[in-house]
Design goal:
Layout lengths: L17 E13 L4 E7 L2 E7 L7 H12 L6 E10 L14 E12 L16 H6 L1 H4 L3 H23 L3 E2 L17 E3 L7 E3 L5 H9 L4 E9 L11 E10 L3 H20 L9 E3 H8 L13 E2 L1 H4 L5 H8 L3 E7 L8 H15 L5 E6 L2 E3 L8 H11 L6 E7 L1 H18 L10 E5 L4 E4 L4 E4 L14 H4 L8 E6 L2 E8 L4 H10 L4 H15 L6 E7 H9 L29 H6 L7
Parallel strand pairs: 6-9, 11-17
Antiparallel strand pairs: 1-2, 1-4, 2-3, 4-5, 7-8, 9-10, 10-22, 12-13, 13-16, 14-15, 14-16, 17-20, 18-19, 20-21, 21-22
Helix pairs in contact: 4-6, 4-16, 14-15
């Protein structure tokens, strides 16, 4: 090894040792006859102090001092020297190694560096595009290395926990066949079978079900998955999930298993004791109370339904919405009325219109024991009093109200609630809230395609008590599905699977997947279900998103070593890129120009 210790390892107990360190120049200061250099690696920073006492002689000391002055940020150097305790009062409390310094005896330049466009030792960051283009420099930043170290630790805990619980780690294929439903597949053309394509896995769903049928009753995999869909801060075209499947289990068994894992992660990574069992909320309740199936429960500000009152009022917008069978709902920001001028309210209204498609945003302020707003003149005092009471408003409060379809009001009020919660500082950003959402609808009707589509995936089982609804009212059938939610993010989701061939074929027909297509695409699964498939179910945790949440970051790109942009491009390597004609000919492909 070129070093005896790392740059974050040495302490006052090491004083007197002769050590060798290697790393990058974080920064340096020159004070004439004295120069300080901070040497950095992924373990920390150690100060190297060059002075007239360095080296083994005055000549060596002067040579070392001159060499140190030639160093620049991100030069790679090796330093051999003696560990010294810093003088009393000269300690640096910001560094783990702040009680010691190195008196150099030898300095070796291992490599130079151009002026880096991303400077790891400086807190000010360039644009994200520059960071992604020079990701190898961005990854030198301590914050990035801390995030990836946390991710590594979480994966290790997950592997240890599942091993203790008797799971077998089994790899599933990356090259499979394209199947309907879900997001778009990434397709891979076959050279040896021209005109045919593999699909990269959106998840190992079918393979893990086949493993259950094969008798591997506890499967786990840290699985790479691919989905060709529009991206956002917490979504990537390629991502990683902790994938689990279990046989002879109920939903409660799987939830209990995952709560044990969450408790382990919370204790060992966050240093917090998780109270079990975690709270559960039905999908319908979550949508009514919070407008979203992954609500942030670190604060209140629940949605309030005003539809019945709107049906009795004379305000045309509210009354018309209620008469059409749509919803009038609102949220209240307690004590925040003074923070919202008319100009700011107009800005929020435009934001809601642009982001959620609402026609407008109504509002009331609590003043002088009643409600004040430009629209207040359209209401009788008695109706204003009822609205104020329903909303639980007091003087100084402000309410925002959306009159639209149920789905639009959910999207808009959830967005408003999250933004208000953050801007009004209604919760501690370092706090955590874990919960389960259950009783999801199994199917929803696609008006554009005029057919039922699976809310989760076509292999999700209905709740046993709801199975008869598949024949009479499929939209009311609930799925044996469950999502774990942390701080308003869906951290993972799963379900009990269909293990009966007849029921699986019925679901395919409901989804307008005919017998011929089902046989072509899923024949292997239908065949397997005929040979003693056990009851089984599982869950997948989004590893990237979970690491982002635990690290307290806003984007999963900050916990992925080499992520892609919102346009699914790699700015560092230039992927996706063009290929030459020879490669296309080998694949029997022609590009449309």
């Amino acid at each position: 090894m070129l070093r005896t210790h790392t740059c974050g390892e040495l302490r006052k107990e090491d004083a007197g040792k002769i050590v060798t360190l290697c790393g990058w120049v974080d920064h340096q200061r020159d004070q004439g006859g004295l120069a300080f250099l901070w040497l950095r690696d992924r373990y920390g920073i150690t100060q190297i102090t060059f002075s007239q006492d360095a080296g083994n002689s005055p000549e060596e000391a002067e040579g070392l001092l001159q060499s140190a002055r030639q160093l620049r940020q991100e030069f790679v150097v090796q330093v051999e020297g003696e560990v010294l305790r810093r003088p009393e009062g000269g300690e640096n409390q910001t560094l783990a190694t702040g009680e010691i310094e190195i008196r150099p005896l030898k300095l070796t330049l291992l490599n130079k560096s151009d002026v880096p466009p991303v400077q790891p030792g400086i807190p000010d960051l360039p644009s994200e595009d520059v960071r992604l283009q020079y990701r190898f420099l961005d990854l030198r930043r301590p914050d990035m290395q801390k995030a990836l170290s946390l991710r590594h630790r979480m994966v290790k805990i997950m592997r240890d926990y599942t091993d203790e619980q008797g799971f077998l780690d089994v790899e599933t294929p990356m090259l499979g066949r394209s199947t309907p439903e879900g997001a778009r597949d990434y397709l891979v053309p076959s050279r040896v079978q021209p005109g045919k394509f593999y699909a990269l896995p959106q998840s190992p769903q079918l393979y893990k079900q086949l493993l259950m049928i094969a008798g591997f009753d506890r499967y786990v995999q840290v699985a790479r998955c691919f989905r060709d869909e529009d991206l956002r801060a917490d979504r990537q075209p390629e991502f990683t999930q902790l994938d689990l499947e279990m046989s002879f289990v109920t939903m409660d068994d799987i939830i209990g298993m995952m709560e044990g894992l969450m408790a382990r992660l919370a204790k060992e990574v966050l240093g917090m004791e998780l109270s079990l069992p975690l709270p559960r909320m039905s999908y319908r309740e979550a949508m009514e109370r919070f407008g979203h199936d992954a609500p942030d429960l670190r604060f209140g500000m629940e949605l309030v339904d005003l539809t019945d009152l709107a049906a009795q009022c004379e305000f045309r917008v509210f009354r018309g919405t209620a008469d059409e069978g749509n919803r009038v709902r609102g949220i209240v920001a307690k004590g925040a009325a003074a923070e919202f001028s008319r100009k700011r309210i107009d800005e929020w209204t435009r934001w809601a219109q642009e982001n959620f498609g609402v026609k407008g945003l109504a509002w009331f302020k609590g003043e002088e024991g009643t409600l004040h707003a430009p629209i207040a003149k359209n209401f009788e005092e008695a109706m204003l009093a009822q609205i104020r009471e329903r909303l639980g408003m007091e003087d100084g409060d402000i309410a925002f109200i959306v009159a639209d379809t149920f789905s639009t009001s959910c999207r808009a009020l959830n967005g408003l609630r999250r933004r208000l919660g953050k801007e009004l500082k209604l919760y501690d950003p370092k706090s955590f809230h874990f919960s389960w959402i259950v009783d999801f609808p199994m199917l929803e009707f696609d008006d554009e395609e005029q057919r039922w589509v699976a809310v989760h995936h076509p292999f999700t089982a209905p709740l046993p008590e709801d199975e008869p609804l598949l024949d009479t009212d499929p939209g009311k059938c609930r799925a044996a599905a469950y999502d774990i939610v942390i701080n308003g993010f869906e951290a993972g989701g799963g379900s009990i699977r269909i293990h009966d061939n007849t029921l699986q074929q019925k679901i395919f027909r409901l989804l307008n997947i005919g017998d011929a297509m089902a046989r072509e695409r899923f024949g292997f699964l239908l065949d397997a279900l005929r040979f003693g498939a056990p009851p089984h179910g599982g869950i997948a945790l989004g590893l990237d998103r979970l690491a982002m949440i635990f690290a307290g970051l806003d984007s999963i790109r900050d916990v992925i070593a080499f992520p892609k942009t919102a346009r699914a491009t790699d700015l560092m390597t230039g992927a996706p890129g063009e290929v030459d004609d020879k490669q296309l000919r080998e694949l029997k492909l022609e590009l449309g120009r």
